[in-house]
Amino acid sequence: MGKNKDYKRTRLRPDRPLELEVCVEAEAPTPAVAPWASRPLVFLMGWIPTYRDTGPGRDRVKIWRSALILTAVAVAWKGGVAWLPLVFTAMLALAAATVPVPHDRRQRWLRWARGLALPGVELRQVAGQLHCDGTKITIRHGGRVWGSLRPAATDSEVVVGSVGPDVYLGFCPATGKKRDALWFVGARAGLPADLVVEALPSRVQERLWRPVRVDGEGWGRLFEAFSHPRFLEVRS
């Protein structure tokens, strides 16, 4: 293959890397959902009777519920149509139908209640930095490596396709694992007007994993460099 002068101009090297500001999907902390409600709920749930899902445990549940039902019947018979005995009877009947609860279920409720006081995390689009020296692509966020890939060393396949107004460019290593791939996405409007890009097949769309968003002039520079056939050649 002869030398391509245009590629020679854009070929990346350690002393002439590609460095861009990008957007990546990363976990960001969120405030606690309801810290004020956590402690009261834990306290109340601690009083809920429980039983172990064993033979003796189920036998105790039957005895407990039978006693509650008999008590409710007795209160209803003695109280007649007075409103207070009727309310008490309804409460006893409800208790007989709902408590005690399995021990594992109450533990799940307690974990949920305690979690109300803990900060959470959610996925957000945050700023990142891309660096490529022609051999390795490294993306950092918050001073840490968010993702990296050596396309040539991993025998990666370049996949290019469009989904709506966006164009995707991905490096899919020979391992075939979804999370090993590195995807980039940008607006179709940021690329040359005469560039023909076919729609990305649905089977490939299903394997998209946390694409890196590149906007503005940087998207055109990245696409030009990464989509060139010689980019995947092993460098000495």
Structural description of this entry:
There is one protein chain. This protein is an alpha+beta fold and 236 residues long. The protein has a 4-stranded antiparallel sheet with strand order 1-4-5-6, with helices on one face. Strands 7-8-9-10 form a 4-stranded mixed sheet, with helices on one face. It has a two-stranded parallel sheet with strand order 2-3. Helix 2 packs antiparallel against helix 5 and helix 3 runs antiparallel to helix 4. The longest helix is centred in the N-terminal third of the chain and has 25 residues. The protein starts with a helix and ends in a 10-residue tail after the last helix.
Topology:
Layout lengths: L4 H6 L7 E13 L4 H11 L4 E2 L3 H25 L3 H16 L2 E2 H13 L4 E13 L4 E5 L2 E6 L7 E7 L2 E7 L9 E6 L14 H4 L6 E2 L3 H10 L10
Parallel strand pairs: 2-3, 9-10
Antiparallel strand pairs: 1-4, 4-5, 5-6, 7-8, 8-9
Helix pairs in contact: 2-5, 3-4
Low-confidence stretches: 1-9
Cα end-to-end separation: 17 Å
The mean pLDDT is: 84
**Spatial ordering of strands, largest sheet:** 1-4-5-6
Question: Measured on Cα atoms, how large is the radius of gyration?
Answer: 31 Å
CATH architecture classification name of the largest domain: Roll
- What is the string of SSEs from the N terminus onward? HEHEHHEHEEEEEEHEH
The biggest sheet, with number of strands, parallel, antiparallel or mixed sense and barrel status, is: 4 strands, antiparallel
By DSSP (H or I, 4+ residues per run), the number of helices equals 7
Level of helix content? 25-40%
